[in-house]
Inverse folding.
C-alpha cells in the first residue's frame, strides 16, 4: 500500500452497513472533516428538480463553463447527501471547469432500486432541458460518480441508450459498483481491505436491491451488450473489492467499440483519494477533473 495512505489506516472506521442510520452519521462526520476547495470562481445554488418525488440538487457553475456533468455521490446506495458530497462535487467543478449538478438521490433500504436510478434519470433530463439556463451546450452533458454513484451513472448511460433518452457525451466512473454477483477475484478475496470489504459490498447490494432481481440498470455488469454507450473514463483502486469488475467492464466497453481510458491506481484503496495530503490522492482527483475537461471540450 502507498505509505502515505497506510499512515492513515488507524483513523479509518470499520467498514459497516448493517445499521444504515448509524452508518450515515459516521459518513457525515467523515465528510465534514474534508476541507472544501476554493469555490470563489463559481456560483453554487441549491435547487429542486421536479419529479415524483422532487429531487434535491446542488449546482456548481464555474465561470465560462462549456459542459456539465450529472454527478452521483458514493455511499453504498445507503449513505450520502449533497452536503456530504460538497467537497468532492466542488473539486470536480474546480478542476474540470464544468457545471456540476450534484444529485441528492433517494437512499436504500428505505428506497430500493429503482428509486435512485429514477432520480438520476430525472436530473439528467432536467439538465439537458435547462442547458441554456445553465449556460452549457446540451450536446456536452456527462454523467459520473464515485462508487455506488459510478454504478448509477453507468446504469443511466445504459438506460439512455436503450430508451433513446437524452444524449450523454461521457461517463466518468470512479471505482464504480457494477456487479452484485461478487464473483471476481478481488470481490472474493478482499475481505478485510480498508473502508470497503466484501461484507460491506454484500450489505450495500442487499439494501439497494431489496427483494427485486438485479437488472443491468441496477448492476450494469449484467448488461449483455455494451455497444453504443458513451466514451468512458474508469478508475480503480488496487485494494478494492470493485477493482476487477471495473477492469472487466472497461475491457468489455473497449471490445464493444466504446472509447475508454482506464486508470488502475496502485497502492490505493476504495475511497482513499479522500486523504488529500497523499500525492497519489492529489493525482487521482486531478485526473478525474482532467478527464472530464478533455471530454467536454473535445
Amino acid at each position: 500500500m502507498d505509505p502515505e495512505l497506510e499512515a492513515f489506516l488507524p483513523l479509518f472506521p470499520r467498514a459497516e452497513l448493517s445499521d444504515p442510520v448509524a452508518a450515515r452519521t459516521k459518513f457525515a462526520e467523515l465528510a465534514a472533516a474534508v476541507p472544501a476547495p476554493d469555490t470563489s470562481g463559481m456560483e453554487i445554488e441549491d435547487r429542486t428538480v421536479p419529479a415524483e418525488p422532487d429531487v434535491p440538487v446542488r449546482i456548481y457553475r464555474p465561470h465560462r463553463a462549456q459542459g456539465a456533468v450529472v454527478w452521483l455521490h458514493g455511499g453504498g446506495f445507503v449513505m450520502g447527501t449533497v452536503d456530504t458530497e460538497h467537497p468532492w462535487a466542488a473539486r470536480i467543478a474546480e478542476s474540470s471547469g464544468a457545471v456540476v449538478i450534484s444529485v441528492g438521490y433517494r437512499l436504500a433500504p428505505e428506497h430500493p432500486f429503482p428509486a435512485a436510478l429514477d432520480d438520476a434519470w430525472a436530473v439528467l433530463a432536467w439538465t439537458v432541458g435547462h442547458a441554456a439556463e445553465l449556460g452549457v451546450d446540451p450536446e456536452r452533458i456527462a454523467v459520473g460518480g464515485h462508487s455506488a454513484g459510478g454504478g448509477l451513472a453507468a446504469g443511466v448511460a445504459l438506460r439512455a441508450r436503450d430508451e433513446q433518452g437524452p444524449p450523454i457525451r461521457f461517463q466518468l466512473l470512479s471505482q464504480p459498483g457494477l456487479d452484485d454477483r461478487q464473483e471476481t477475484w478481488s470481490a472474493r478475496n478482499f475481505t478485510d481491505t480498508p473502508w470497503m470489504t466484501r461484507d460491506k459490498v454484500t450489505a450495500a447490494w442487499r439494501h439497494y436491491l431489496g427483494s427485486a432481481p438485479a437488472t443491468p440498470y441496477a448492476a450494469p455488469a449484467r448488461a449483455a451488450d455494451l455497444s453504443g454507450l458513451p466514451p468512458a473514463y474508469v478508475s480503480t483502486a488496487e485494494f478494492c473489492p470493485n477493482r476487477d469488475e471495473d477492469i472487466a467492464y472497461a475491457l468489455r466497453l473497449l471490445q464493444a467499440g466504446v472509447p475508454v481510458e482506464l486508470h488502475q491506481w496502485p497502492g490505493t484503496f476504495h475511497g482513499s483519494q479522500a486523504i488529500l495530503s497523499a500525492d497519489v490522492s492529489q493525482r487521482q482527483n486531478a485526473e478525474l477533473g482532467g478527464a472530464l475537461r478533455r471530454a467536454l471540450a473535445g
Notes: The longest helix spans residues 279-297.
